[in-house]
């Protein structure tokens, strides 16, 4: 009895380490040289899940490392705008003026103060390669954000390839198999990809003889693995759709330069700060294209997403008044004279 228990313990340990294979209960056992459907994933499930979680966190880490080089503390600005909605009413106008003054200094500090052929080349490169060389061209922060969105898209697509390779080149269609089974049988049938009972071959040496043994192994862990990876498949599909849609939305918005002027003019008209004259509209266009630029508009959009229309309107009005108070704006300086 003791020897039997030792053999049983040894067989369970061996089969857990050296994988098992699946044979349907109604099928005959395959020959020794016949190809078998090996299951090699169940030992590594915790490690692969941790690795996938790290891949999802990696774009966020890159954003936090690189966004600080833009010169603006976006988290601090968003926090201040949130506090204005919850703080005392008397502090609200002063807080908005402080945020506008901070953004005005940031926008002025990251302008191009010389204009030559190299500056023009870097400006063209920054338009093509997103945030590269874009700090003084007003496209670093917005370009970096789109780049991070692209990393999230690459990540979610690569997750399917990783799991497909890890699970055995069948996982990419796993969700469709589940839906097809539910449609035809109206029940959650046992999947051959997550069998609860498998087979394991091993050889036991006794003196000078090596005897082959085949054991039937129970894998209760697959009961949970099947639920986990079924949920992950549908979750990844949903996340992929949302992530790709968000990336395309921000990318197309960045390509359409007219959106900046339209966004600014819409808010200024609603606040009564912008008249209906052609000169006022041209000034508002220069305000959006030469003063705020892509990064300024991006910060305003982020603030708008995390606050309300009243806050973003008051903040943009303060920036508009600061812009009109600048001497170069009053004198009607051109874009290259302002060196933006």
UniProtKB/TrEMBL annotation:
One of its GO terms (cellular component) is plasma membrane. The chain crosses the membrane at residues 41-66, 144-163, 232-256. Its main location: membrane. It is a multi-pass membrane protein. It is found in: Cell membrane. One of its GO terms (biological process) is monoatomic ion transmembrane transport. Structural component of the gap junctions. This is Innexin. It comes from Pomacea canaliculata (Golden apple snail).
């Amino acid at each position: 009895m003791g020897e039997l228990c030792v053999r049983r313990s040894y067989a369970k340990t061996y089969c857990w380490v050296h994988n098992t294979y699946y044979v349907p209960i109604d099928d005959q056992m395959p020959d020794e040289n016949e190809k078998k459907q090996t299951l090699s994933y169940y030992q590594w499930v915790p490690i692969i899940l941790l690795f996938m979680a790290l891949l999802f966190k990696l774009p966020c880490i890159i954003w936090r490392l690189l966004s600080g080089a833009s010169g603006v503390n976006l988290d601090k600005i968003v926090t201040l705008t949130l506090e204005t909605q919850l703080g005392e009413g008397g502090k609200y106008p002063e807080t908005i003026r402080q945020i506008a003054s901070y953004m005005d200094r940031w926008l002025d500090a990251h302008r191009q103060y010389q204009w030559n052929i190299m500056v023009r080349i870097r400006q063209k490169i920054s338009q093509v390669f997103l945030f590269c060389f874009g700090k003084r061209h007003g496209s670093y922060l917005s370009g970096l954000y789109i780049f991070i969105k692209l990393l999230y898209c690459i990540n979610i697509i690569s997750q399917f390839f990783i799991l497909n390779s890890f699970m055995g080149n069948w996982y990419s269609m796993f969700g469709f198999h589940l839906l097809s089974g539910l449609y035809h049988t109206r029940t959650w049938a046992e999947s051959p990809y997550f069998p609860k009972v498998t087979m394991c071959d091993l050889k036991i040496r006794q003196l000078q003889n090596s005897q082959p043994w085949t054991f039937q192994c129970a894998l209760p862990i697959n009961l949970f693995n099947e639920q986990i990876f079924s949920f992950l498949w549908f979750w990844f599909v949903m996340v992929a759709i949302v992530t790709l849609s968000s990336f395309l939305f921000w990318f197309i918005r960045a390509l359409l330069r007219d959106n900046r002027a339209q966004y600014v003019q819409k808010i200024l008209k609603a606040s009564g700060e912008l008249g209906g004259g052609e000169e006022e509209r041209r000034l508002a266009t220069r305000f959006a294209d030469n003063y705020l630029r892509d990064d300024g508009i991006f910060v305003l959009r982020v603030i708008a997403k995390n606050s309300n229309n009243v806050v973003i309107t008051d903040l943009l009005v303060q920036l508009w008044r600061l812009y009109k108070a600048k001497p170069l704006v009053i004198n009607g300086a051109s874009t290259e004279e302002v060196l933006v």
